[in-house]
Specification:
The chain is 71% helix and 0% strand. It starts with a helix and ends with a helix.
């Protein structure tokens, strides 16, 4: 642990920009980079993030340490500013941070609600049932789950997609543990690669789009580099796959419940609404997503009233604990089942990194990272940092550092941050989730065995981006 702290510290220092510096343009600012508060804040964040990295070992959800980290950092900042008579500077800064988080929170909450609605309607269970019943060979299933992960993740996000495909692999590979492990690695790589070319595929691409650095349609120029990132490791891992066909599973095929496919359609319309709000009305995409949540709420009313013959809650005055709240399709149940740990984790990361930035580390790092090294080297290194520290704080740091870069280089950092996390199992939310879901079959070290191959795909995808987009 001690060695890990000393190893991560320079990386963390490299990633601590200033989010709120510009927002407090009419307020006083104090350079705390060489103050004991600055050093304490760094230590608090590093310790908190170590708990995040070892979430599976310490059995503590990742949101808890970073939320504490955010609180402590801003308490220290506010105390120093108040002691110097600047009572509103920290307030202005933290409000700016919180607005950044609020937009991301509501955007993701809508997306998670739609995904939960699809899960409840059996959309993904039906897909899994169909794949299992077809009697595909292990090698065919390896490619099918990978390709599906690649193409579903741009819409459903890489975490949800990886969990769905892993469920398929677990169902058909019960007799072949080796297949489960290598198939999970392929799913993680495919889901992260697929998420890299879509604003909806990964938190990092979403942040870049919402910040306005890259237009919606421009992300899709990363499609071919993302394909390369997925195909090269998969083609090499193919030769390590077991031969044969899993035993066919008996039982009735899973059918999609009433309204399931319509909800898929509404989700696509919601995405189109968010894009339209951003492109044509120049409103933040989150407003389009919230408008799209209204589609789902109205359709949920229709399902309950006319498809399931359950009294719609709009017409019934029942206490929240009533059993009737659990009959049929309940949209608020889908909201409640959102990934709250993930949403609060983002709060902790955004507020912590924003606070460390407000302390003043932007001036110490931005000139070196993007000035001395240059955007090419810096953005390639971002991918390696993403594999160690996780891509969300890394990308948030880059965005708040806001270096002067061309659209080509913003696309490059989007690609590297999105797919760089595939090099280690702890480098992405998809990898961390699958270590829990396929416990004992897919581990940190089973993934590490294939890291050189995945790194080869990483390098090839960067070369492809330069070749076709440069």
């Amino acid at each position: 642990m001690k060695h890990l702290v000393s190893w991560l510290s320079p990386l963390i220092l490299l990633l601590l920009p200033s989010l709120a510096f510009a927002s407090g343009d009419t307020h006083e600012w104090i350079d705390l980079t060489r103050h004991w508060v600055g050093y304490t804040a760094i230590a608090v964040f590093v310790i908190g993030y170590i708990f995040v990295i070892f979430e599976e070992q310490v059995h503590m959800r990742k949101s808890k340490p970073v939320m504490m980290s955010a609180g402590i950092i801003w308490i220290l900042i506010a105390a120093v500013y108040a002691n110097n008579g600047f009572n509103h500077s920290a307030e202005v800064a933290i409000r700016h941070n919180f607005l950044e988080y609020a937009e991301l929170f509501f955007f993701l909450m809508v997306a998670m609600t739609y995904i939960n609605a699809m899960l409840e309607r059996g959309v993904f269970d039906a897909l899994r049932s169909w794949l299992v019943a077809k009697g595909f060979s292990y090698k065919t299933l390896f490619w099918l789950t990978g390709i599906l992960a690649f193409f579903i993740s741009p819409i459903a996000d890489n975490l949800t997609t990886a969990l769905i495909m892993c469920a398929v692999v677990m169902a058909v590979g019960a007799d072949k543990p080796a297949f489960i492990g290598i198939a999970c690695i392929n799913i993680v790589v495919a889901a992260n690669a697929g998420g890299a070319f879509s604003p909806f595929g990964d938190i990092t691409t979403l942040m870049v789009w919402q910040k306005g650095n890259v237009d919606f349609a421009t992300f899709f120029t990363l499609f071919i580099p993302s394909v390369v990132n997925f195909i090269i490791p998969a083609a090499i891992m193919h030769f390590a796959l077991p031969s044969g066909t899993p035993s066919p599973e008996t039982g009735e095929a899973v059918k999609i419940k009433a309204g399931g496919l319509q909800i898929v359609g509404l989700f696509l319309i919601t995405i189109a609404t968010a894009v339209s709000f951003h492109n044509f009305l120049h409103l933040p995409p989150v407003y389009g997503m919230m408008f799209g949540l209204g589609y789902l709420k109205l359709y949920g009313f229709y399902i309950r009233r006319f498809k399931e013959n359950v009294p719609a809650m709009d017409n019934v005055d029942l206490p929240p604990s009533s059993e009737a709240h659990h009959d049929g399709f309940d949209i608020f149940d889908k909201v409640a089942k959102s990934e709250w740990d993930t949403l609060f984790f983002f709060y902790g990361v955004i507020l912590s990194v924003g606070g460390l930035g407000f302390i003043g580390y932007l001036d110490l790092t931005s000139n070196y990272v993007y000035g001395e090294l240059g955007p090419d080297v810096a953005n390639v290194l971002v991918g390696f940092m993403s594999a160690i520290v996780d891509n969300i704080p890394v990308m948030f740091a880059v965005l708040t550092m806001n270096p002067e870069m061309s659209e080509f280089h913003w696309l490059l950092v989007t690609l590297t941050a999105g797919v760089g996390g595939s090099m280690l199992s702890v480098g992405s939310a998809a990898g961390v989730a699958l270590m829990g879901q396929a416990r004992g079959h897919y581990t940190f070290f089973s993934h590490l065995k294939w890291t050189p191959v995945i790194a080869l795909g990483y390098g090839a995808s960067i070369y492809t981006h330069y070749l076709i987009n440069g």
